[in-house]
Amino acid sequence: MKLSDFIRANIELILEKWEQFTKDLPSARYMSREDVRDHAAGILSAIAADLDRPETPAEQEKKSKGLGPRSAGDTYAAMHGSDRKAEGLSISEAVSEFRFLRAIILRLWSEANPTLPQPCTDDVTRFNEAIDQALTISVERYSTDMGRYTRLFSALLASSPDLNYIFDADGTLVYGNKSLASLCRLSLSEIVGKNFFDLCAPLADELRQQALHVIDNKTAYRGEMPYTLASGEVLAYEYIFIPVLDDEGNVEAIAGTARDITERKAAEERISKSANYDHLTGLPNRSLFRDRLDQEVKRSLRTGQPIALLFIDLDDFKQVNDRLGHDGGDQLLLQAAQRISSCVRSMDTVARLGGDEFTVILTEVNRLPHIEILAQKILEELSRPFSILQTEVYISGSIGITLFPQDAATSEDLVRNADQAMYVSKSAGRNRFSFFTIGMRNSAWARLKVIDELRCALPQNQLAVYYQPIVELQLERIVKAEALLRWKHPQAGLMRSEQFIAIAEETGLIGEIDEWVLGEAMAHAREWSALLDAPFQITVNKSPIEFISREPMKNWAAHLAALGLAWNCIAMEITEGVLLNNSPIAREKLESLQKAGVQLAIDDFGSGYSSMAYLKKFKIDYLKIDPSFVRDMAACIDSRAIAEAIIVMAHKLGLKVIAEGVETIEQKDWLKKAGCDYAQGYFFSGPLSSEDFSELLRKGKVPPQGQAYLGNYTA
Asked: Could you tell me if 305 and 364 are in contact, meaning their C-beta atoms sit under 8 angstroms apart?
């Protein structure tokens, strides 16, 4: 049987042998059956056809040199070379397939023709020539594709902004792209042969160790490193070392890439700073402060070195913020942060918790006097004038101090203790510091209990409004009343507003309580106006918090009209501090009240920083003389002089005067003689429940002189 006929008859057997051989090649072990056999049948058919075609001696000679005629299109042999390159087989593996094909076909043909002492020499020669021709075509295509891939990858690597490199086990560069050469200020030809580690001299030893790790473990390594330019600018790179294995599985080189992550690191730093630092002052924020405090507590436990925590609150910051706006407030916070930071060591931590609250963590504190000196220094710095928006501003600070481990076992307890000590400083007059004591903790717990109970007071109908008569002195008849808040506490009994109103202001409950008191006062103003058949005015105390709050004030004109009340049935009693605040918000709210016809009274006039200009500017209706002047009239000529001056001045400005705290007939008679318009106090009556006050009005006169009408009131 001719060899060409044998190939056609046994093509499936030959393909099975081919597949078995190819699948044993290291690079082809994962190839599918279809991929292994792809183009093989075509190659065998082409060889068989070539064997049947007549050839001249000259054609045979050319073919033996791989110079036989070529097909105009792709041959199966060419497609074999291209596909093997694409599949990742080495050129020696692709050539070995043809060597095996030559051997297996000749062996199978010989076994199929045992009677032939020698195969046909001409067929064997022609067959070898055909195999060589197919091999040549396959290798050429493999090389062509290899060259194309090399050019493409070279162009890709050369144009990449990333640094791409290949170096041998000693670090000698065998390839470096344009970006690497530019960074090292070398040409492409100069970069090859340089030692990779020497190009990164400061980190050379570390990089060598990493490369040895890659070689020993045959695994990739990722890392980050800084690189300093000639200009001194420091760039950040992330890089990877990848082992390149030879046919025996040994590392023959290390390939890698490095990417400039300077911008990414800067962005991460900005994000980290935003998460851990206050954007205004640049100080650690609450989150970072708590982390550092936790670390310092743990360190103190290890070393035995105590730490101190200072809690600093800026006094009167809110007034400055309201007066100068948020820009002014921000400048004040920034300058305050700088002054506090200037007082401490670099090893200590100054943080801003939020608003006008700062903390200082003092480490390795050995002597108490040092803490006192530092706290006093901070207070002195904060009490110096600040220049804010071309305005000289004065504030102060209240500082609470606690120690670890003396005062607390955890960082949470430290913060709580320092906060409590700070509030003690505020309550004691501000611009001072206080060390935490166990008594403060007990007081704080008691205060929290009151807060919880106060939150329930209004829903559980524990609050009540009492009314104290205001008497017109010339006729000695009741013409007004002041609404006074009381708390019918289940355990403590009847509590005066002074005992809990500050807590209501601090916790934000004051708005709801004020609104309820006003509603009660309006209802009774309408009731008593109807009883007397004339407008009856009730004065309601308004918290200063209401005037500095950004919450809009209700439409008073419409509100009074809806309730059917005369414009002068409600008066608002405010403190001098509201006028002196002079913030746009306070001015707007005062003007809103005046437009609605609500009259304004200044409480405790003469006890604070009185200003005649503000009285005229805000069109105040009443001045209430502070009870201290009334109380001391009999024994103190100065008190009488001040009271008389207030009455004369008020009348000159067109204001009426109410004297508070009248308890004796002598006080009443002197005030009447001095021209005071109204008076209130226990001489006439103490605060009464609404029922008792109604009864008092029905009688049509005040109680007999010197007999204070107390009704059901319990002092």
From this structure: yes
User: Nearest to residue 509, comparing CAs of 491, 535, 485, 479?
Assistant: 485
Q: pTM of the predicted model, to two decimals?
A: 0.49
Question: Around 357, how many Cα atoms within 13 Å sit in the side-chain half-sphere?
Answer: 14
* Cis ω for the linkage preceding 405 (within 30 of 0): yes
Q: What is the pLDDT of residues 278-330, one digit of tens each?
A: 999 999 999 999 999 999 999 999 998 999 999 999 998 988 888 888 999 99
Question: How does pLDDT run across 462-471, given as a tens digit for each residue?
Answer: 999 999 999 9
CA 191 – CA 182 distance, rounded (Å): 9
- Expressed in angstroms, the distance from the first to the final Cα of the chain is 134
Burial class (CB in 10 A: 0-12, 13-18, 19+), 260: middle
Other CB atoms closer than 10 Å to residue 336's CB: what's the count? 23
Q: Which two tokens stand for residue 289?
A: 């402060």
| Other CB atoms within 10 Å distance of the CB of residue 4 | 20
Mean pLDDT of all residues in 415-438: 91
Q: How confident is the model at residue 633 (pLDDT cuts 50, 70, 90)?
A: confident
What does the alpha-carbon distance between residue 579 and residue 612 come to, in Å, rounded to a whole number?
A: 11
Distances (CA, A) of 285 to 237, 297, 353, 569: 30, 18, 6, 50
Give Cβ neighbours of residue 591 (< 8 Å, ≥ 6 apart).
Answer: none
CA dihedral 322, 324, 330, 335 (to 10 degrees): -120
Q: Which domains does the chain have, with CATH numbers?
A: 3-156 (1.10.490), 160-266 (3.30.450.20), 277-436 (3.30.70.270)
